[in-house]
Design brief:
The protein has one domain: Hotdog Thioesterase (Thiol Ester Dehydrase, Chain A), CATH 3.10.129.10. The protein is built from four helices and five strands; from the N terminus they run βααααββββ. It has helices spanning about 25-35, 40-45, 45-50, 60-75, and strands at about 15-25, 80-90, 100-110, 120-130, 135-145. The chain has a five-stranded antiparallel β-sheet, with helices on one face. Strand 4 (about 120-130) and strand 5 (about 135-145) form a beta hairpin. The radius of gyration is 18 Å and the shape is elongated. The two termini are about 15 Å apart.
Length: about 150
């Protein structure tokens, strides 16, 4: 791994990561919905207006995809080896066309691997917000992260 990476040793509990800049469009909601989750409120604007959402919304799976995109932007340079788990996933508000999404993540726990001293296990609390600062999803991501090699 490159020397300019952010390793396990470089972060401490309480450190934050962030990413911004995802605009949600009608076309991507409808395209994703047609392929993976063809409920009327994901694929048909008229039917969506009559739904409990009152308009077109992204599916939960697509909301996770939006989170994942921003997560990789926020974790750019992190010497991540694998994602171990996603826990405590909560959908808090629908994602709608025109939403501008941003991510904030805080390192909530970190421990060295007991079996492999070259890595550690880190848990980040992720919060995805829309342009009104309304949280749309939050979750805990447990990651396996390389420790800085001995120099």
């Amino acid at each position: 791994m490159a020397a300019n990476l952010i390793y396990y040793n470089d972060l401490k509990v309480g450190d934050a990561l962030a990413a911004d800049g995802l605009e949600v469009t009608v076309d991507e909601i409808v395209r994703f919905g047609r392929r993976y989750d063809p409920r009327p409120y994901h694929v048909d604007e008229e039917a969506a207006t009559a739904s409990i959402f009152g308009g077109l919304v992204a599916s939960g799976a697509q909301t996770l995809a939006f989170w994942n995109y921003l997560r990789f932007k926020a974790e750019e340079g992190l010497a991540q080896l694998a994602t171990l788990s996603l826990d405590n996933i909560h959908y808090l508000a629908p994602v709608r066309p025109g939403d501008h999404l941003r991510l904030e993540a805080e390192l909530t726990s970190a421990r060295r691997s007991m079996r492999k001293p070259d890595r550690g296990i880190m848990t980040f609390r992720h919060n995805l917000y829309n342009q009104a600062n309304t949280p749309v999803i939050n979750l805990d991501a447990c990651l396996l992260v390389a420790r800085r090699p001995a120099e």
